[in-house]
Amino acid sequence: MKTSAARNWGLRLLVFSAVVGLWELFRSYSQNFLLLRFSEIVGALFRLLFFEDRFWEALYVSNQALLLGYAIAVVVGIPLGLAAGRFRWMDRILNPYVGVLLAMPIAPFIPIVIIALGLGLSARVFIVVLFAFIFITVNTRAGVRNVEPSLIEMAKSFGASESQIWRRIVIPGATPAIFAGMRIGLGRSVTGMVMVELLLVASGLGRLLLEFSGRMQSDLVFATVLAVIIEALALLTAMQAIERRIARWAPDISLG
Amino acid sequence: MIRVRGLSKEFGTLDNGSSGGVLALSNIDFEVRDNEFLTVIGPSGCGKTTLLRIIAGLISHDQGEVSINGQPITGPGPDRAVVFQNFALMPWADVLTNVTFGLEIRGTPKEECQATAKKLIKLVGLEGFEQRLPKELSGGMQQRVGLARALAVNP
Prior knowledge:
Chain A is an all-alpha fold and 256 residues long. Chain A is built from ten helices and no strands. Chain A has helices spanning 2-29, 38-51, 53-86, 88-103, 110-117, 121-145, 149-157, 162-201, 204-214, 218-246. Classes of the chains: A mainly alpha (256), B alpha+beta (155).
């Protein structure tokens, strides 16, 4: 086990170095003065974190929308997915809307939402929810439908009530898929949060990005993006740790 | 005693409206007395599983009577338990939890569930495997877990 952990980190470092290498290669061939050396970006990140109060303020503002929006997306998305998975009539009702929400680009709707809800937190939260919840729903539904029907029949054969079937069979069985949906939903929430701030509401991190790019401070632009990525990675890693403890039983069909 | 008289079951037409259903069982008569073993043999698709599911109370029948100890069968009950062909074990639960499932559904207190389960796990020869997950067991071992689970509710 120990050697494979070391090997994992070795591989990650290798891939990371390759990415940085490709970045530098692209820089040397391109005339774009806005592309910087990776070390300069990292330096800018440190300046951002330790010398700019505005960054932490912006982070706080953006995260309000992110965490609130994500929480609502989860609270709305999971029950919808559970219902669509278990009750066929519910699935049929939701089906057309699911298709539309999956395919439709949300960005064009941002101005409409702003007009309806104003430029404050509620508009940003609403956009984040729109970006995220449908993916949580779809994955949850798939998880429910993938629960072996014979397990439900088995539970019925022992006289289980509907609520017992839910608690003991459906939800444990759908948990890995629900977590997958929650991971995807988190990524979508981050995207939604930044996008609405970039396109219209100009607050938080999006506003910082607009300011820095407006002043051609590309090092700070990249640094801000890097900060967002790091935060997303941290949240996803935390979620993965929780999932590992809850859903250790899920089949692993990957190779190697 | 299980009594079956004149049992018939037809599965309805397909959703696309194409002709005729499938007559799975027609006029079945038999009895199974206490402590008696009955084996039903037949080619694949002849209705054996349908018959078992009707007796288990999982599906309804069209004609005839099915009763156990004089009571007509209308659904699952504490007097019957099923061992499934594809095991139907909960993959997220260990052997002990799988075996206690039927008892827990019926509200039996936890200590009693576990005591009964451990006895039966020993009986089917899986002592020592209580904490294992189904994916760590062979097919035959999984089937034995299913058997222990069915026996646990004392059908």
